[in-house]
Structures are given as structure tokens and as C-alpha cells.
């Protein structure tokens, strides 16, 4: 007999973080360091100095032609010490799209929700995933990016969708590595990857996008935070380029608008403002769909986690039945009201959501 919790959500068209909300994981092409750092293994970081024991520093990136130290340094420059960042390195010879579609990646990802003694540890579970390729030396001869970017987006979205259905909820920021040219940027409105944001810009001039920067900023913000919030001030960077080497400062507003309409995540300038800002928090999905932004993913994931926690407590209970043999409507209404009081009302008070409607039925939960 099935005794789990079934939470259903339909991706329909739409008219400061706690430590749990900001837990991130970086999956990145890397190289092993003898007796210090192994690939395809999960590491937990809370500050830059944790990298010393792993033998990872700026020279490591340079000698191995990877973007590990750089991404982590950008993360902690934005997040500050104490923020949790899990690290998984895979060999450069490993195809990223195949890796995220395989069994090892989701297994390692789910280990972040398990304590050292083997018990569930929800506050340690990854909520945000960053995926970064190794730096490329030449522009792509065909396609819009490094050849594995778009296949990885599709595979990653599928894996996150499968994990969501199993109760492990996260979204991802993907390295838009080695963009062929700003004018060649593809339209992501038909990509159908609502759980993946593809980032095209970098604070360091190479082909790898600043994925760590995005995760670091979000790690200290509430789930409803919009990355393009100009009032939050400029990004903590000095320069920015697209991953094809085009300086962000040289791009005209009309081009920014075109990229934005194509659902790209990127850094831009703003008229009358100094510094750099994100355009918005777009994911690779049609903008009229409710999961077309990073904030929408984070909010939905948090509410669904709350529902999972709340309804798990009533598994096996004997609810009152009506004359038709269905669960009594009054009992279901009480479940809904208690959920609002315990979980969503505090989110409303914190400004994370304006409101929500949850309908608990005999068949499932619809929100």
C-alpha cells in the first residue's frame, strides 16, 4: 500500500535567506589532487580556507585549466564565511550532460540531505545547484555555445524534475560556456528547462560564466529575491564580459532587451547607474510560464518542502470519513488552515510570498 505524500504542481501560465534556503552545490570539471581531493566525491565547504586541505588554489585552476577555485572564491565573496557550499568535481574527460543524467550525480546530491549518522537532515540539503564546465580556448565552430551546454541543460532539468517528484527539490544555474557571440544567443523560450537558468556572463575574462557569483548572492537572500533588483545595489564585481569575451559595458540596451526576451541570465549595465547588475532571474522557459524565473522556483520548492514535512506527520492516521467513504471535508479544511498558520503565514509576514491557496483533497495536494 502506498503511504507517501503526493504533491502535484502544474507549470501553468501566469498573469534574507535562512541557512537552509541558501544551501548550494557546485558541480564542476576538475582534476584530482593526490591524497587531498578526489573527483566524483562530495565535499562540504563553509569558507574559502576549507580549500587549503584539498590542495585547491588559484595556481590549481591555472595549471589544470579548470574553474574551481575561481567559482568558489566568487561564491564566498558574495555569500561570506559560514555559507554552505557542497563541491563535486568530475574529470574534464567526463561528459557533463551524461554525468547529470546518470545515477551518480543524483545520488551524491541526495547525500546532502543526510547527516553523518545516516539520519535525514533537511537543513543541510542542497536547494541550489551550479554546474560549470572547464575553460575553452577557441570559439565554437558550430552551435551557440560549447557543445555540451544545451544537452546538459536538458539532462539537468530532467534530473531535477525526477528528484522533485521524489521529494528532493532544487533549481540550477548552468554555465553558458563559450558563447559563440552575443548576436548568436539562442532563444530559450522553447528550451523547456524551467528548473535551469543559463548564465552567459563572467566577472573574469574566460569562457566560464560566473555561476558561483549567482549562487553566492542568492545564498544570503530570501527565496523571493529577484536577482535583477537594482535597489539592492551593484554586484560586487569590477568588470564583466560575456563568455565570448565581449565586454558587457560595450553592449547597447537594445541587445540587453533582446537577450532578456530570450530568457537568458546575464549581467548588464543600467542607465544612470554605475556598476553592474543582473538583468533578471530568468530560467530557460517561456516567460509566460510560472516557473520561468529563479524566484518562482525557490518559492515553490520551499512551500512544497513545507507541505512534504507537514503531511508526512499525518501518514497512517485514521481521518474521519463522510457517508460516501471519503475523507471528511471539514477535516481537510482543518489540515489546510493549520498549514497556513504554521508555514505560509510566516512566509507572508517575512515578505517571501503575498499569499497562496492550497487545496488538500482525497486525491492529492494542489496549489
Q: Short description, anyone?
A:
With 367 residues, the protein is an alpha/beta fold.
Tell me what you see in this structure:
There is one protein chain. The model is unreliable at 1-5 (pLDDT under 50). The protein is α/β, with parallel strands linked by helices and 367 residues long. 29% of the residues lie in helices and 13% in strands. Strands 3-4-2-5-6-7 form a six-stranded mixed β-sheet, sandwiched between helices. It has a three-stranded mixed β-sheet with strand order 1-13-12.
Q: How do the helices and strands line up, and which of them pair or pack?
A:
Elements: E1 7-8, E2 24-30, E3 42-45, H1 58-64, H2 68-79, E4 85-91, H3 96-101, H4 104-111, E5 128-132, H5 149-165, E6 171-175, E7 196-199, E8 201-202, H6 211-219, E9 241-242, H7 253-261, E10 267-268, E11 277-278, H8 294-312, H9 329-349, E12 359-360, E13 365-366
Parallel strand pairs: 1-13, 2-4, 2-5, 5-6, 6-7
Antiparallel strand pairs: 3-4, 8-9, 10-11, 12-13
Helix pairs in contact: 2-6
Features:
367 residues; 13 strands; 29% helix
Q: How much strand content do the residues show?
A: 5-15%
Number of helices: 9
Structural class of the helix and strand makeup?
A: alpha/beta
Beginning-to-end CA distance, first to last residue: 25 Å
